[in-house]
Amino acid sequence: MLIVQKFGGSSLADAERLRHVARLCLQRHQMEQELVVVVSAMGDTTDILNSKAHEINGRPPLREMDALMTTGEQQCAALLVMSMEELGLKAVSLTGWQAGILTDGSFGDSDIKLIAPGRIEEELSLGRIPVVTGFQGICAKGDLTTLGRGGSDTTAVALAAALEAEACEIFTDVEGIYTADPRIIPEAVKLDTIDFRDMLALAKAGSQVLHEKSVELAMANGIELELLSSFSGERGTRLKLLRDSERPDFAGITGKAAEGRMSIGGKMADAAALSRAVMLLAAEGIEVLSGTIAENCISLKTKTDLFLPAINLLHREFLLG
Ligand code: ASP
Ligand code: MG
């Protein structure tokens, strides 16, 4: 049974966390599972590289930005392999191009066109765990390109599809997917499962939990995902296509405080839900400045200073109600 496991930057922030991830891989390997690991850059390496570039050039060329940004994942993959080897695991780091990840040529926001997994399969047959750099690939011209911020999730799902993996696990620093960001709404509830369509609606509306393209790709290829914490050892949230009867009317709410914007995702997020939201807020003296409807999603805007009471009220009414 082949599993793809992806570890985000916070799960790999320093040497101790790298060792912890190496131990998690060892445990999985001992369960006689074939593993392919995908890594992000360590901690906030990508942000640091980004600011370094802007210190040097106010408008850095996109090609060179990608050449720079891809180094974060490369460092991380090599260090994780070193940490795995310390535990006696056989592993090998592979960059996007070594792993056969072919992209279109749009620097900074490219799509994966094709994966030629020959090298990964060869390493697996030699009993080595491939540790693949997320977020990057190579275009037809031979240049390195990145998939957009947060793109390692998409690398993991694309590899799971290409390798026909049994499961794809996305490890992060939160316990799973919640009805809202628990840092903003303490009453938010962790979900056992969420439908792809609801997660996609929330990702499009700005939720940062999973890269939007990764959800699209998982849905198109029928790859069930699990989002879980690398720290706690608890089960996380499963993402899959739910039957209509299992799918809740509303799955979650996400928002951007600085813009006073909030969005509710779910199969009943329609015109009727939008007018209900407007009336609920009006009853509390909160004026809605604008409202829009998209597939499985309603969005509305309030004044920024009313964002917190507004999103808390909508969460209570639509997600807990
Ligand atoms: N390191 C990249 C970023 O910070 C990609 C990722 O983490 O998924 O956006
Ligand atoms: Mg991410």
The second-level CATH architecture of the largest domain is 3-Layer(aba) Sandwich
Number of E-state strands: 16
Runs with pLDDT <50, length 5+? none
What kind of sheet is the major sheet? Answer: 8 strands, mixed
Provide the succession of SSEs. Answer: EHEHHEEEHEEEHEEHHEEEEHEEH
Instruction: Compute the number of structural domains.
Output: 2
Mean pLDDT rating = 97
Bound molecules: aspartic acid, magnesium ion
- How widely separated are the two ends? 41 Å
What percent of the residues sit in helical stretches (DSSP H or I)? 25-40%
**CATH domain fold name of the largest domain:** Carbamate kinase
Computed CA radius of gyration, to the nearest angstrom: 21 Å
| Beta-strand fraction estimate | 15-25%
What's the number of helices? 9
Strand order of the largest sheet: 3-6-2-1-9-11-12-10
What characteristic shape results from the CA principal axes? Answer: globular
* CATH secondary-structure class of the largest domain: Alpha Beta
State the secondary-structure class.
alpha/beta
CATH superfamily of the largest domain: Acetylglutamate kinase-like
